[in-house]
Amino acid sequence: MSSKAIHAPLREEEIRTLRAGDSVLLSGTIYTGRDAAHKRLCALVAAGEPLPFDLRNQVIYYAGPCPAKPGDAIGACGPTTSYRMDAYAPTLCDLGLIGMIGKGQRSEAVASAIRRNGGVYFAATGGAGALIASCVKAAEVIAFDDLGTEAIRRLTVEDLPLIVAIDAQGGNLYESGPAQYRR
Amino acid sequence: MRELDVARVEETVYTLFRRACCEIGEDVLSLLERNLETEESPFGREVLRQLIENDRLAAEKQMPLCQDTGMAVIFMDIGQDVHFTGGDVNRAIEEGVRRAYRDGCFRASVLTPLTRINTKDNTPAVVHVRIVPGDRVTITAAPKGFGSENMSRLFMLTPSQGVEGVKDAIVEAVRLAGGNPCPPVVVGVGIGGTAERAMQMAKHSLTRTCGEPSPDPMLAGMERELLARINDLGIGPQGLGGRTTALAVHIEQMPTHIAGLPVAVNMQCHAARHKAATI
Ligand code: SF4
Question: Separation of A129 CA from ligand 1 center, angstroms?
Fold first, then answer.
């Protein structure tokens, strides 16, 4: 499969060209965040307090890695199931978050936040934790250290293989893909 | 009566989890490879290729193949002629899990449900004990990730729904799960017993060699039929569309009450990890 190289933080022009079903290789800086971190981020938003990082044009990767072995940047680091973040994602998208990486279908509220804000949702391969770890060159906890694996980490990634699952034009590979192979 | 030092139980639990989280079985790998040959969807093939590469890489580097190293599920068949010595066997099991997750750099994924405070060492384990004849102990370590566990379902059907109702419920559970449980999945099914026993059978069926048919010809036939129906859903690897939604369906059954027809579906992702040893 031929893949398009893209770079995070993402540029709006770059996002506009992405369509559900495109394969991409993502390099640059992304942030991990899953259940507990999302709960805290949204509590900060509700309280009107500053967030630990500026969300504008950033990508959040729904992942809670294993501890790194000595000498490695990170342990196994595949995506977690995204629907658990559906309750929080629209709030973050409206604050400028442009990309999300996870696995599995999203709610209509998230798909519409993606359309409204010109964002994108990428699918990473669930369960490919060792393979994905080899694309992570550096990792550093930047917030909520007490959450352990659920802390927010800034990752430097190189050629992370992703598939565009939901685009800003209303394309959704979780709907169109299975429809094509159903018998 | 055979005396068995609990230190051996601890060591066995430790070794089994260290291996289970990093080394996928040949059974799963060969099914992934076989499906790569028949998968029609280009996304499906790409995902299967990545999974095969991932599983090889993990074994080679002795790192977890998936970051969700799961809750530590253990099946323990204890011979009735065994006498444990040297301490509390329950503590030995917990210690084996604790050390395996720490030394293996596995993820501490276990917390108190309501406070969400992490126990930090992936204990407690979920231990299913059976007393069996003999003087041996067989331990099966089956770390279970929650992407797939969350998609499990219990159906308390009525007897009038019959075999067709059972089949429909199983297919529906897989359809509703979609891409969430990291397909291709292994579908574990328990039919009969009580509510909790049905789910226990469903989970136990997942410790069978992946794709090996049930010894009961009627169940084996159902497994084949359901596998075909499930793959016709088109969900495909990772839910992106394709012909490989499940690698196998495993069913166990036992008698149930005249008023009931319990059906439990325990979903297992492609990271169908389990290792067993007899001591
Ligand atoms: S569902 Fe299985 S393969 Fe997917 S992330 Fe969880 S443990 Fe890993």
Answer: 9
Spatial CB neighbours of B57, under 8 Å, sequence gap ≥ 6: A130, A131, A134, B63
CA of B146 to the centre of ligand 1 (A): 7
From B113, B128, B144, give the residue that closes a domain: B144
B241/A63 touch (CB, cutoff 8 Å), yes or no? no
Domain boundaries, position A147: 3-182
Residue from B45, B110, B175, B238 whose CB has the most chain A CBs within 10 Å, to mutate: B238
Look up A7 and say whether it is catalytic. no
3-state class of A182 per DSSP?
coil
Best CA proximity match to B144, nearest among B215, B69, B40, B42: B69
How many A from CA of A125 to the centre of ligand 1? 10
Cis amide leading into B159 (omega within 30): no
Q: Within chain A, where are the H helices? A: 12-16, 35-46, 89-94, 108-117, 129-133, 173-181
Contact B234, B245 (CB under 8 A): yes
If we measure between CA atoms, which residue out of A58, A49, A64 comes closest to residue A28? A58
**Strand A4-8 relative to strand A23-32, pairing:** parallel
pTM: 0.95
Task: Report helix, strand or coil for A30.
Answer: strand
Q: Inter-chain contact B241–A127, Cβ cutoff 8 Å?
A: no
Residue nearest to atom 3 of ligand 1 (CA): A127
Same domain as B210, residue B245: yes
pLDDT in tens, B145-186: 999 999 999 999 999 999 999 999 999 999 999 999 999 999
A1, pLDDT greater than 80: no
CATH of the domain at A99: 3.20.130.10
Pairwise CA distance, residues B145 & A32, whole Å: 19
Print the domain residue range for B259: 147-272
Are B246 and B239 in contact by the 8 Å Cβ rule? The answer is no
ipTM greater than 0.90, yes or no? yes
Residue ranges lining ligand 1, Cβ < 6 Å: A 78, 126-127; B 66, 68, 145, 147-148, 181-182, 269-271
**Helix B42-61 × helix B26-38 angle, to 10°:** 160
| Amino acid making up residue B17 | F
Residue B118 per-residue DSSP state: B
